[in-house]
Amino acid sequence: xxxxxxxxxxxxxxxxxxxxxxxxxxxxxxxxxxxxxxxxxxxxxxxxxxxxxxxxxxxxxxxxxxxxxxxxxxxxxxxxxxxxxxxxxxxxxxxxxxxxxxxxxxxxxxxxxxx
Length: 115
Fold this sequence. Notes:
Blueprint: E1 19-25, E2 29-36, E3 45-47, E4 51-58, E5 62-66, E6 69-73, E7 78-81, E8 87-90, E9 97-104, E10 111-113
Antiparallel strand pairs: 1-2, 2-9, 3-10, 4-7, 4-9, 5-6, 5-8
């Protein structure tokens, strides 16, 4: 059994106000919260073996890009991405965008960044 409280952890970017906040890392899944400040992006990337899910929980929306197809984000949207699907998240609003993410299986060296 493992227990954490999100409020006890810090985000990994922008002075602790946005970015990724892992709640659990391995041994089977990565699980956490990600916040995009206005104008921030996830950065286009893909995973060779890992499936990734995003569930958008707060904000005014934004844009989800999957294999170059742009989709408007509505709060409550969930996206499950298969390995090799290129993706990015763009907060093109004036408010923070907050999502939960899950990556399975745990494979921290699986991410491939693209320009």
